[in-house]
Amino acid sequence: MNKTTCKECTNNNCLIKKHIERESMQSYIERKSTFKCQNGQQFILEGAPVSGLYFIFQGAVKVYKSIDDSSSQIIRLSKDGEIVGHRGFGTNYVYDISASAMQDTILCHFQSDILIDMLHKTPELMYDFMLFYADQLQKSESNAKLFGRMTVKDKVINGLLFIQRKFGQDNEFFNLTFSRKDIAEFAGTSQEQVIRVISALKKEGLVSTKGKKIGILNSSKIEAELSESGYFLEG
User: Fold this and answer.
1) Exposed/middle/buried for 99, CB within 10 Å: 0-12, 13-18, 19+?
2) What pLDDT score does 233 carry?
């Protein structure tokens, strides 16, 4: 595919995009690689050597950790402009997570040595990365406290509300298709429990389903079903 440039990027939430006019970054930006991942294609393998950071130019990605040979836990859902692979960057020699595209996705990739050099030469970018990591830590700590008090129903509802807010909804259904297995791995429960909760919510007229497609029909009413206040934040 043709290489996408940072100047044509419209993701103003991207940390690289925010600083592309700085002279100290020009030579590094030209050295990034860009590639396309097909829906379902894995581009980070847990246990593989860390190669750098990925920035989503366009698309959607799930980040997950293996629990055993047959199950995983989705720990992050990412979209346009967001970073993937940051949990291993700068601290580990191998990735402690895997990542796969959830739809056809275009990724920008900076090798570790290039990005580290760029951070050293651009203090403003380094500062923004520091704030990003601090925010991620705060969210992870909040998640751990809230998650432990949630019922299964809370976990599923919070997962559905988060997906709706993150990826949006067109009429009846989320803009991105999630299998019941995906929802279970994100909510931290079993697929059978997800099916039961969604079935109950559908009977109450709070969600709509069609095959793998699912959508929330009344956000305020489904939120009122929660026994805990607040949303499950992404880590």
Assistant:
1) buried
2) 56
Domain total for the chain? 2
Pair (21, 129) in one structural domain = yes
- Residue 158, domain extent: 150-223
Write down the pLDDT at residue 125: 95
pLDDT value for 71: 82
Q: Cβ distance 199 to 153 under 8 Å? A: no
Q: What is the pLDDT of residue 229?
A: 57
Backbone torsions φ then ψ of 83, nearest 5 degrees: -95, 145
69-94 tens-digit pLDDT = 778 999 999 999 999 998 777 666 88
End position of a domain, from candidates 142, 174, 200: 142
Does a structural domain hold residue 214? yes
Domain of residue 128, CATH code: 2.60.120.10
108 Cβ contact list (under 8 Å, min separation 6): 4, 6, 16, 32, 33, 34, 54, 55, 56, 57
Whether the full predicted model's pTM is greater than 0.85, yes or no, is yes
**Tokens read off for 165:** 């807010």
The label of the residue with tokens 């199950």 reads 71
Beta bridge partners of 74: 64
Name the 3-class secondary structure at 145: helix
154 CB-side CA count, 13 A: 14
- Domain end, chosen from 142, 175, 194, is at 142
Positions in the chain whose pLDDT score sits under 50: none
